[in-house]
Write a structure and sequence with these properties.
With 463 residues, the protein is α+β, with helices and mostly antiparallel strands. The longest helix has 14 residues, at 421-434. 16% of the residues lie in helices and 35% in strands. The chain is flat, with a radius of gyration of 27 Å. It has four domains: 33-119, Trypsin-like serine proteases (Thrombin, subunit H, Beta Barrel); 143-234, Thrombin, subunit H; 245-348, PDZ domain (Pdz3 Domain), CATH 2.30.42; 353-460, Roll (Pdz3 Domain). The strands form five sheets. Strands 21, 22, 23, 24, 25, 26 and 27 form a seven-stranded antiparallel sheet that branches.
């Protein structure tokens, strides 16, 4: 090959589009948006829904800095129903300019599978951040550029790849699907169009069991356009805020499933969808309104509901939540195939395990939480069972040597009845002052009750 031909081919390569992008467009987009990408490292406690026991797992994810002061977006899989992130650290910068910060996890939005984190710093920050374009629509076949992180083997280096919009879903909201598989380190990464404008991030909408909340399209990579999450950047979620009008979520107190077509056919009902009441919680608004297992809800607050698929049930949950606590609304159900009109007064959703109070005890090496309604349901506990549930047991601690483990419910400690976190704190303080040679803890593990024997070495305990 002659040298002149080689020069021509080299020049042409600089202007040849890479799946719709010129090399200069890619270089400019990378230089502009790659500095906003951060590495999020964290630990999770995975709770076994059957036993209540927890295991620890260390993980990492891509973070995208979206404000100069340190608000960071991360993939929704960080916060799952049975997994709680802690020890969160965020590294910003790369190629020798890294800075590592602690971070707190904010309340996860209900309407998009994204987490928000806030970097903790004693001094004001001015970090490179992503700025999203407004009101961007995309078309079938339109090229997009993704920026993400390679694996630990490649030192979490920033990388790119290009793909196209392979499909557009119009319901329940406009959703753009990309036409290729998504590497894990790119989940949550920025999506740039051919004009170099930042239009959103890429991710997955997951099933409820996997941690998705709304608009479930499991298993396929999607573009979350910026208009879906811009409000959370402008007004970040609070760490402890509750949703719904007035700061609380409204709640019915039922377990449900959609009215599948085969259910409708079996019960000789129209195949128009609905909410099947599987069970009713004791003391809930649903019980007080007279709802029964087997009822099919077809409207609430004069709004018809027609779920026929699992993913459509979350729309009903969102509707209930937004009606508001304390509101009395009409409810129409089908009972035995016949319509029945009821009235229901919505109450505030009970505190969940995710929002439960927690106490870390340095004497016996236990981290315990208050018992919440969802934990009682999970473990089949009646309201007569009082106590606190063990979340973590410190390795080598007094509790660990006694055989105590996560999921055990402490009902009495050293003959001190335990009905709340405050009771537990007071009992620990009292025992630390009295310093008995042996302490009995009356506990419940599954369906069984019994005693654990704690033998503190008070001279070795540092408080």
């Amino acid at each position: 090959m002659s040298s002149s031909l080689w020069v021509v081919m080299t020049v042409m390569a600089q202007f040849m589009p890479a799946d719709g992008f010129t090399q200069s467009t890619i270089a400019k987009a990378y230089a502009e948006w790659a500095p906003a990408i951060a590495l999020v490292q964290y630990s999770s406690e995975i709770t076994d829904p059957g036993s209540g026991e927890t295991t620890k797992r260390d993980s990492s994810a891509l973070g995208l800095v979206v404000t100069p002061g340190g608000l960071v977006m991360a993939p929704g899989h960080m916060q799952l129903e049975n997994a709680e992130p802690f020890n969160v650290a965020i590294t910003v910068g790369h190629s020798g300019s890294e800075q590592k910060f602690e971070a707190e996890v904010l309340k996860k939005p209900d309407d998009i599978n994204i987490c928000f984190l806030r970097i903790q710093s004693d001094t004001p920050l001015n970090l490179p951040c992503a700025t999203f374009a407004r009101n961007m629509r995309m078309a079938i076949g339109e090229p997009v550029l993704l920026i993400g992180l390679y694996s630990e083997n490649l030192d979490y280096a920033r990388g790119i790849y290009t793909c196209r919009i392979g499909g557009i879903l119009e319901k329940p909201r406009t959703t753009y699907c990309i036409d290729s598989s998504l590497r894990f380190g790119f989940v949550g990464g920025p999506v740039i169009n051919a004009q170099g404008r930042l239009v959103g991030v890429v991710g997955f909408d997951l099933t409820p069991a996997e941690g998705g909340d709304l608009y479930v399209r499991s298993g396929h990579p999607l573009v979350y356009q910026a208009d879906l999450f811009r409000k959370y950047i402008e007004s970040p979620p609070d760490k402890t805020a509750e949703g719904g009008p007035g700061g609380e979520d409204a709640w019915l107190g039922i377990f449900t499933q959609p009215l599948y077509d085969d259910f409708a056919e079996y019960w000789n009902l129209p195949k128009e969808g609905g909410i099947v009441v599987s069970s009713v919680m004791a003391g809930s608004p649903a019980e007080q309104a007279g709802l029964q297992s087997g009822d099919v809800i077809v409207s609430i607050n004069s709004i018809e509901v027609h779920p026929r698929l699992d993913r459509e049930v979350v729309g009903f949950t969102k509707l209930v939540r937004e009606i508001g606590v304390g509101k009395t609304v009409p409810l129409r159900v089908l009972r035995g195939g016949k319509p029945l009109d009821l009235e229901i007064t919505l109450a505030a959703r009970p505190k969940s395990a995710r929002d439960a109070g927690e106490y870390k005890d340095e004497v016996f090496g236990l981290t315990v939480r208050e018992l919440t309604t969802d934990v009682r349901i999970l473990l089949n506990l009646g309201e007569d069972v009082k106590g606190v549930i063990i979340r973590r047991v410190k390795s080598g601690s007094i509790a660990n040597l006694a055989g105590m483990r996560p999921g055990v419910i402490i009902m009495e400690l050293g003959r001190n009845p335990i009905a709340s976190l405050d009771d537990f704190k007071k009992a620990v303080a009292k025992l630390a002052e009295e310093k008995p040679k042996e302490i009995s803890a009356f506990c419940r593990a599954g369906a069984e009750t019994g005693f654990f024997r704690l033998e503190p070495r008070w001279d070795a305990i540092k408080r």
